[in-house]
Here is the input.
Amino acid sequence: MAGSLVFLAACTVEAPESIGSGAAPAADVEIPAAQKSTEQKNHSTPAVAGRDLKRRPWFGDLHVHSSWSLDSYINFNPVDPEQAYRFARGEEVSIAGGRRLQLASALDFAAVTDHAEYLGELSLCLDEETAQYTLPLCRDIRNETEQQALVTRVYKELIIPDVSSPDPQRQGAICGADKRACEERARNMWQRLIAVADAHNDPGRFTTFAAYEWTGNTDGNNLHRNVIFSNQHVPARPISHFEASTPALLWRQLKESCRPPCAVLAIPHNANQSRGRQFPSSLSQEDAQLRSELEPLVELIQGKGNSECKMGVGTADEYCNFELLERRPVCSDDNTTQATDCIRVCRAGDEPGTCIHANSYLRNALKEGLRLEEALGVNPYRFGVIAGTDTHNGTPGATDERNYMGLFGAEDATPAARARLPAIKAFKPPRLHSAAGLAAVWAEENTRASIFAALARRETFATSGTRIILRFFGGWDFGNDRLDDMDIARHGYQRGVAMGAALPRAAGQDAPEFLFWAMKAADGAPLQRVQLIKGWREQGESREATYDLACSDGLVPDARSHRCPDNGAAVDLNTCAASGDTGAVELKGRWQDPDFDASQAAFYYIRVLENPSCRWSTWEALREGRPPFEDVPPLIQERAWSSAIWYRPDV
Here is the structure.
């Protein structure tokens, strides 16, 4: 059985309108595409008839900025937290420029994560009853002349200097010498954020969380985190970059201020912009332990790009070059340091910003975690994965490539704005931005307690915005049942562990087995392949391998390359219509590691790829009657990633 696929779903390209949770094959779901009930529109994962599975998938967005975030407000976003939650539940909203937007399918859960930094300052600047209202900086923040130059000025004079400082202070031009007015107003706004989240929390139908973003950006390195609380027991104030200037200080203050029944987790994002500091190679044992307790997850992809991996940066995986902000290829050894058409991997002594750091990508961090565990006895990088939007339009879950309206208010509100270079040199051109992603969890019910528990145990997966459903289990003996007769969920939970968990060693067993199951999104492209990524430690070195486990259209992975043959899926760039009749509604299988060594620590995770489809920039080019941008690919392969399963030889 080693390395072999036991069963592959038949090729088909028509998905049911209602996608069921659990391991049921597509044939068990018989709802015509034309049938779209109210329940289906407002509930993204209705139950599959005849199945009573313990856990089911729920889709959400835990990275959302409303007009209460300073950078969102100055970019003319009119959507407040109340409207953002209504949008997540399926209502239409008006965003920057008067554009109207509505989700095709409502979310199951969401959190408005406005920046803790300037939460009080912005409120004071907008309140005519305060002394701050008439300050020149507050007038600039209100942008009363509607000049984009004022937006740039606020960024350059206020936001960037403060969040980049190693010793950040509350802005004296607004707060004055006595910072208490800003701190008190921040407490007040935090309580209002909590109240709005509580008002929209509807157990069983829609879940919200009290949450905010800690926006640490020390020395130009993105160290941002979204802080999510499990229940109504929350600290009296949010901990911002001003109170905790480093991640380690944030962890300590969260642990001190959030004691049971309070429960909290922090979710790092945009490691791709951290210059390697999001996942440092050196931590103290204390910090490693704190991080392992408080940060079980990483946001893998969002509007500012993909942080999984990059070809040539610790990997030879050709599918890593997906929605990257840094799109230049890695320089070969004979490239000079002055080359501008490629980028070097960082070496000791390199100047910040002149090269690309391996530890800016999650896969390298997962490998680094295995090494750190050998040294410290704890793995600080045992991360599960989710995805989000980082929308600054107040529109959680707005990830449709066909109807992309930007993510940052007026900054990228129009096709012309998305085509031009940003006013601030440090920012990337909007055309490089992704249409963002979604978080998914396997939970018993749509409630705070159940969804937070799934986040905490890492039974989560990330998507690039599509609603692919993905299951992944590891074990030592899943039995000899034919896969098409097997209840994958029952076998997975009873005989193994789910994604996000550690697989204990089993005496007398040759190699672990893995069960996987993926179903296409109701409105997404057919599935093309399922891949497994393995990382491990061998003779003191970190290694990785990628295996295609399941191919659509009856194809079989090549025995030497471990890759599926091309299934012939194509797209007509003149219309964005898929050509041919390829792909699958579902792909599933059972696989055993052919190269397993019981003495080596390892992790395994699944990546599912759709057939190619048009990227948002190509859809936009068609509408505008112009050629697509030349510096971004015209097509995209939407995908989903599971959280990993870890093997430790000493457990």
Remarks:
- The first strand starts at residue 56 and ends at 61.
